[in-house]
UniProtKB/TrEMBL annotation:
Name of the protein described by the UniProt record: Protein yibA
Gene3D superfamilies: Leucine-rich Repeat Variant
SUPFAM superfamilies on file: ARM repeat
InterPro entries in the cross-refs: ARM-like, ARM-type_fold
Length: 76
Protein backbone atom coordinates (compact mmCIF):
# COMPACT_ATOMS: atom_id res chain seq x y z
CA UNK A 1 0.00 0.00 0.00
CA UNK A 2 2.73 2.46 0.84
CA UNK A 3 4.29 1.98 -2.59
CA UNK A 4 0.96 2.38 -4.32
CA UNK A 5 -0.01 5.50 -2.38
CA UNK A 6 -3.04 7.58 -3.19
CA UNK A 7 -6.14 8.53 -1.25
CA UNK A 8 -7.48 4.97 -1.15
CA UNK A 9 -4.31 3.67 0.49
CA UNK A 10 -4.30 6.52 3.01
CA UNK A 11 -7.97 5.92 3.79
CA UNK A 12 -7.37 2.19 4.31
CA UNK A 13 -4.36 2.85 6.57
CA UNK A 14 -6.46 5.26 8.66
CA UNK A 15 -9.21 2.63 8.92
CA UNK A 16 -6.61 0.11 10.11
CA UNK A 17 -5.48 2.59 12.79
CA UNK A 18 -8.98 2.52 14.30
CA UNK A 19 -9.40 -1.28 14.15
CA UNK A 20 -10.03 -3.35 17.30
CA UNK A 21 -7.24 -5.73 16.30
CA UNK A 22 -3.86 -4.43 17.48
CA UNK A 23 -2.05 -6.03 14.53
CA UNK A 24 -4.12 -4.02 12.06
CA UNK A 25 -3.57 -0.84 14.10
CA UNK A 26 0.15 -1.56 14.05
CA UNK A 27 0.12 -2.06 10.26
CA UNK A 28 -1.93 1.12 9.81
CA UNK A 29 0.54 3.15 11.86
CA UNK A 30 3.47 1.69 9.92
CA UNK A 31 1.90 2.53 6.57
CA UNK A 32 1.14 6.09 7.68
CA UNK A 33 4.80 6.52 8.50
CA UNK A 34 5.91 5.35 5.05
CA UNK A 35 3.26 6.57 2.64
CA UNK A 36 3.44 9.86 0.79
CA UNK A 37 0.46 12.09 1.58
CA UNK A 38 -0.64 15.45 0.26
CA UNK A 39 0.19 18.57 2.28
CA UNK A 40 -3.49 18.89 3.20
CA UNK A 41 -3.49 15.44 4.85
CA UNK A 42 -0.14 15.79 6.63
CA UNK A 43 -1.57 17.37 9.81
CA UNK A 44 -4.34 14.79 10.00
CA UNK A 45 -1.88 11.89 9.67
CA UNK A 46 0.42 13.42 12.27
CA UNK A 47 -2.51 13.83 14.71
CA UNK A 48 -3.58 10.20 14.23
CA UNK A 49 -0.04 8.95 14.90
CA UNK A 50 0.30 11.25 17.92
CA UNK A 51 -2.98 9.98 19.40
CA UNK A 52 -1.89 6.38 18.84
CA UNK A 53 1.56 7.00 20.35
CA UNK A 54 0.03 8.50 23.49
CA UNK A 55 -3.11 6.43 23.99
CA UNK A 56 -3.07 3.02 22.30
CA UNK A 57 -3.43 0.12 24.73
CA UNK A 58 -0.81 -1.94 22.85
CA UNK A 59 2.85 -1.15 23.49
CA UNK A 60 3.70 -2.47 20.01
CA UNK A 61 1.28 -0.05 18.40
CA UNK A 62 2.55 2.86 20.50
CA UNK A 63 6.13 2.04 19.46
CA UNK A 64 5.22 1.83 15.78
CA UNK A 65 3.31 5.12 15.98
CA UNK A 66 6.37 6.80 17.51
CA UNK A 67 8.65 5.36 14.82
CA UNK A 68 6.22 6.41 12.10
CA UNK A 69 6.04 9.94 13.49
CA UNK A 70 9.84 10.08 13.36
CA UNK A 71 9.77 8.85 9.74
CA UNK A 72 7.30 11.60 8.82
CA UNK A 73 9.47 14.24 10.51
CA UNK A 74 12.58 12.89 8.78
CA UNK A 75 10.92 13.27 5.37
CA UNK A 76 10.05 16.90 6.03
Amino acid sequence: LQLRGGQDAVRLAIEFCADKNYIRRDIGAFILGQIKVCKKCEDSVFNILKKMALNDKSACVRATAIESTAQRCKKN
